[in-house]
Amino acid sequence: MLSLKNLSKSYKNNVALKNVSLNISEGICFGLIGPNGAGKSTLIKIIASVIQDYSGNVQFTNNKIQIGYVPQEIALEETLSARDNLHFFGRLYGLKGAVLQKRTEEVLSEIGLTERGKEKVKTFSGGMKRRLNIGCAIIHQPRFIIMDEPTVGIDPQSRRYIFNMIEKFKSNGFTIIYASHYMEEIEQLCEEAAFMDHGKVVENGSIEHLLKKHAVPSIYVKGRMCVPDDLSQTCSKGKDGGYLITANNPLAAMERMIHFCNENSGEIERLELVKPKLEDVFFSLTGSQLRD
Ligand SMILES: Nc1ncnc2c1ncn2[C@@H]1O[C@H](COP(=O)(O)OP(=O)(O)OP(=O)(O)O)[C@@H](O)[C@H]1O
Questions:
Q1: Most informative mutation of 36, 46, 178, 185 for ligand 1 (most atoms within 8 A of CB)
Q2: How far is the CA of 56 from the centre of ligand 1 (A)?
Q3: Residue ID of nearest Cα to ligand 1 atom 17
Q4: Which of 14, 53, 70 to mutate to test the pocket of ligand 1 (most atoms within 8 A of CB)?
Q5: Whose C-alpha lies nearest to ligand 1, atom 18?
Q6: 218 lines ligand 1 (CB under 6 A)
Q7: What share of the chain is helix, strand, coil (3-state, %, to 5)?
Q8: What is the pTM (predicted TM-score) of this model?
Q9: CATH of 216-275, one of 3.40.1350, 3.90.1750, 3.30.70, 2.40.240
Q10: Is 41 close to ligand 1, i.e. is its CB under 6 Å away?
Q11: How many angstroms does the Cα of residue 87 sit away from the middle of ligand 1?
Q12: Residue ID of nearest Cα to ligand 1 atom 7
């Protein structure tokens, strides 16, 4: 367990974190979500010990736990090869000799760069750099991996590759903290998440709990028909000329639509349940006002 208690951090007059407390269980992927400037990177840097002048307490149950930190900005030496970058980071973590050689080859294979190991990083695509950035963070085999927006600016293939790596980390019992703006990534990868805004945790819990508490399901209906008065209050225009109706009991709303249509000789072309999304939770908790 990682326990964060009353973490606060200011950059001169700018308050980045205000009394953040969280418990993060081991063996899960924990998502950090929030608009620009919410404080996610600051929190991550405190956990990774990159920032040390803060108030509050960071406590790991296992004091000897090793951390791998994947920073938001790619931190590689462009003029060196992938292999030499891995060597460099491995040596920083105290690896040497045959162990360092073995780990370097293992990591190159894990990040799909064995064939390109000799090439200079400056010739790499965004996806290759992101994968190598992760490789440098796991060279010392940490069981706790912190990733700050690791899929920014990459193609779907590299993203899929990184997701598969994360699934493998999870099946090996590793703990991952994953910050992202991409809500569908958090939904797909994480068991639990915290929403941050203006330096505070505004909500946290399991993804299921967050969706249940903050997002209302909807139904989508399209056809030659009207919407009954009792559903029209929560009805808005959907795509392709259909209607989106939010309803706490979507199955009852679907039944109501079918009956109403039958009674009024309408015709339904499409009727679907629209599952609530984490994005709905995000806007419900943080609003839609721009942050810059
Ligand atoms: N080195 C710094 N000096 C001054 N202010 C900073 C510094 N780093 C962050 N801040 C400020 O602290 C606040 C929190 O920033 P932080 O980078 O932690 O947020 P974030 O949620 O990670 O944002 P983003 O999604 O844009 O990466 C912001 O107001 C930011 O401008």
A1: 36
A2: 18
A3: 41
A4: 14
A5: 39
A6: no
A7: 40, 30, 35
A8: 0.89
A9: 3.30.70
A10: yes
A11: 31
A12: 11
Query: Rounded CA gap, 266 and 258, in Å?
Result: 9
Whether 37 lines ligand 1, by a CB cut-off of 6 Å, is: yes
Fold adopted by 2-212: Rossmann fold (3.40.50)
ipTM, 2 decimals? 0.97
| CB proximity list for 94: less than 8 A, separation 6 or greater | 140
Angle (CA) 268 265 275, round 5° = 25
* Tens digit of pLDDT at every position of the chain (292 positions): 999 999 999 999 999 999 999 999 999 999 999 988 999 999 999 999 999 999 999 999 887 789 999 999 999 999 999 999 999 999 999 999 999 999 999 999 999 999 999 999 999 999 999 999 999 999 999 999 999 999 998 999 999 999 999 999 999 999 999 999 889 999 999 999 999 999 999 999 999 999 989 888 899 999 998 899 999 999 999 888 899 999 989 999 999 999 999 999 999 999 999 988 898 888 888 877 776 6
Taking a C-beta distance cutoff of 8 angstroms, is the pair 48, 69 a contact?
A: yes
Closest CA to ligand 1's atom 2: 11
Look up residue 208 and give its two tokens.
Answer: 């299921």
Give me ligand 1 centre to Cα 213, in Å.
29
Beta bridge partners of 55: 8
What residue segments make up the domains of the chain, in order of their start? 2-212, 216-275
CA torsion through residues 248, 251, 252, 254, sign: positive
